[in-house]
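[step 3/7] fold_predict: job queued, chain A
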Amino acid sequence: MNTQDINRKIAPASESLSFSGFPAFTEKKINDRFPCYCFENFNSEVVRLDIVVDAGSWIQQKPLQASSMARMMTEGTKEYNAFRIAETIDFSGAYLDVTASNHNTTISIFAVKHILEKLFPLLRSIMTESVFPEEEFRVILANNKQEFIIGNKKVMSLARRIFPSMIYGENHPYGKILKESDFDNLATEDLKQLYNQLPLGSSRCYIGGNIDSNVISSLSEMMQHISTRENGIAEKESEIQPSTDKERVIEIEDAVQSAIMLGIPVVGRSHPDFPLLVLTNTILGGYFGSRLMKSIREEKGFTYGISSGIALRNKASHLSIQTEVKSEITQLALDEIFREISRLSAEKVMMDELNIARNYIFGSLLRSLDGPFALTERLMGVHSINLDPEKYFRYYWDTIASATPEDVLRTAEKYLRPDEMRVLIVGNKN
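[step 4/7] structure written:
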């Protein structure tokens, strides 16, 4: 077929997709203490292991404390210096990463099965004996500070950094704005303090790939050396206080592009309306064939790309729309975005449009459940908010499968409230 003959205004025929349920996994108890969730795949020699600790940036006393602690955990322990850690991982052909999210610190490693067992002493040392060497810390912090400074010169990077404060409030853990001075106020003692408060005794393990008794046995031996401390710093509740200014403009001298972000707090994954909200967002701006892409990009030519999405947090979530446009059409683009939001809240979508968005969601979900590593990611996500994966994904699929144009209209009216949206413009608003 000659691609020039394709009418790109007509969507290809869609096929009906089915959901057979969340794939089976095995739950074990490591040393009668640690929950361990296993997705087996004996066709692969690679194993993925994630150890999740319930403590993250929500409890940090200073900005950057949690993320810097996680980054520095692989820069030296009592047994291994930074060079030896890097050399061991590289020589093994493995991948090791420690990350801190809002509510968790996660140690992740990918390795060939027989190699993984040999890396458990290193993992144990990282989890229990990190020393946070001053020299490495200063180098990493300086590099991160430089990246921050450069990022602040990019309109969209700056917008993404500031926008959560408009949704949640500057005093909320999700909304605090990182400042350049925060890099100068952090010390290795701050990292050690948080590290020593990690509730390692309540860790959860997730394993995907070629799992056998030797892997489990080696993991059990390692976890015997993990602290029995189950309670760290309790997470204090924080009230969401959206910015009193519904629109904020940050002028950037001589900016040729303006970054536009707008959004509103919405419900999260545990709410019954969440699947319909995902469907509504997908129609609005959640994929390449969305209304915002068709209107702002294809018809008006205002931008190369525009999207909407739901930023999921354990304790709160928000829907946001983002794009970059030429400075001189900033207001025109913003007006068009609000027109599409209002239209979705005022007119029922056509069934064909709903079905295309529905199939896009189903295809994305099925791809995300393909393979033990992807399944591990999904399971960790639903476990973080105490959801049962089978019940959650079944309800998610069935709700979207049965959704009607009336459901989309009602959801848009309920959650896409233009008058309550916060708008951030970084650049020039002409």
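[step 5/7] annotate
Residues 160 and 261 are 8 Å apart (CA to CA).
The longest strand covers residues 257-266.
exit 0
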